[in-house]
Amino acid sequence: MFECKCYILNNGKENLGKFDEKMDNDIFLGYSLTSPAYRVYNKRLMTVEESIHVVFDETNHAEQESMKNYVEENDQNTIL
Fold first, then answer.
1. Number of structural domains in the chain
2. Exposure of 74 by Cβ count < 10 A (0-12 exposed, 13-18 middle, 19+ buried)?
3. pTM, two decimal places
4. Of 34, 41, 45, 68, whose CB has the highest number of CB atoms within 10 Å?
């Protein structure tokens, strides 16, 4: 899903210290036009990156969809 919460692996981009995070919190934007990679917005660096090492977190999106469906059903019941 677009604008889905995701994580990009910091594999060799930076010299990570012992207590540095191995993944950055990102937002999925789409697919790369030139390579088989994902385009993501890195919140920490505030840049758009392309990478194939992306893990998606769709649990939050699934909860939002179920809440949206619940609200729509209740709105239809109040109209009737």
1. 1
2. exposed
3. 0.61
4. 41
Range of the domain at 67: 5-79
Below-70 pLDDT ranges, the chain: 1, 11-14, 60-80
Place of tokens 């179920």: 66
Token pair of 45 as six digits: 């660096």
Do 71 and 65 contact (CB within 8 A), yes or no?
Answer: no
Classify burial at 25, counting beta carbons within 10 Å of its beta carbon; exposed 0-12, middle 13-18, buried 19 or more: middle
- Token pair 């950055």: residue: 24
* CA R_g for the chain: 17
What pLDDT is stored for residue 59 in this prediction? 76
DSSP 37-79: -EEEEETTTTEEEEES-EEEE-HHHHHHHHHHHHHHHHHHHHH
The pLDDT, as a whole number, for residue 60 is 60
